[in-house]
Amino acid sequence: MREKILHKAGEMFLNLGYKSVTMDDIASEMGVSKKTIYKYFDNKLSLVEEATIAMHESCLTMINMIVGQGHNTIKENFEVKKMFKEMFQTADSSPVYQLKKYYPRIHEKVMKKEMVAFSACIRSNLQRGIAEGYYRNEINIELYIQFYFSLVFSIHESTVENYKIPELEREALEYHTRAIATEKGIKELEKQLQS
Prior knowledge:
mainly alpha, Tetracycline Repressor, domain 2, HTH_TetR, DNA-binding, TetR/AcrR family transcriptional regulator, Homeodomain-like_sf, HTH-type_TetR-like_transc_reg
């Protein structure tokens, strides 16, 4: 039951917003009493934190599945971007923006975890991209990880309207890729932008 509550709460937080969803809303949506939810979570704050961490872990699992499909590194980045777009498409406002605004301590904690986990993914992508000839040999991998994070997180943390995020993310990914790509990488980038 605990996992079902986490899943439903996470889904509702993403689609309806962290602030607007109440414990009553979650109980009603699940067809259980509020008492059932409080059996597993002391308050909304603890549910928000655990649901957000569960969503973070779910994203990481999906990214690892995409990486395991064996795409070239540029296509892999576009597949990850597509996964996030599908995941957040029903939300009216940015979940990351809301989390930062209404639950700053949880936001900070989750962002620290994301920096560690997603840095490893980006580092691997950059190293493979260099080996595959899509990215230039001389790039400073650690610096480019920081650049890309700064771009992506600034989009999510400062953009209220969720519908704008996919386009801004696509622009950030194109900007990032053009900055590090070889001629072979630019050709693959153009191919991905057209599809």
